[in-house]
Amino acid sequence: MKQVRIRISGKVQGVFFRATAQEEAEKLHLFGRVKNEPDGSVTVEAGGENDRINEFIGWCLRGPDGAVVDHIDVQETQFPETGSFVIEE
Q1: Quick one: which H or E segment has residue 51?
Q2: Number of structural domains found in the chain
Q3: Could you tell me if residue 45 is inside a domain?
Q4: Which of 30, 38, 55, 60 is most solvent-facing, going by the fewest CB within 10 Å?
Q5: Which residues are part of the catalytic machinery?
Q6: How far apart are CA 14 and CA 55, in angstroms?
Q7: Could you tell me the strand order of the sheet in which 2-11 lies?
């Protein structure tokens, strides 16, 4: 089990990044949350099996159609397991 916090910067708001990240996370059976930040970045906290987290990180490097990911920062972290993956406002 691995838990990470991912900060994604670039053109990542207004391109359905959060909704698509939620879909990807659910396909991979991850738990956590995704939210837009005031500075225009997106923050994701995701937890699950190591290989699935690594696959999700790979997706974050690309993002959905319309996104332009300039940089991601990944840190291992700990947060309460929620059992689901939610979009936070």
Answers
A1: helix 50-62
A2: 1
A3: yes
A4: 38
A5: 18, 36
A6: 23
A7: 68-76, 2-11, 42-48, 31-36, 85-88
Separation of alpha carbons 28 and 36, rounded Å: 21
For residue 38, report the phi and psi dihedrals to the nearest 5 degrees. Answer: -60, -25
Q: What are phi and psi of 76, to 5 degrees?
A: -70, 140
In contact, 77 and 6? CB cutoff 8 Å: no
Distance CA 48, CA 67 (A): 25
Answer whether residue 87 is part of any domain: no
CATH number where 71 lies: 3.30.70.100
This prediction has a pTM of 0.94
Q: Give the structural domain span for 16.
A: 2-79
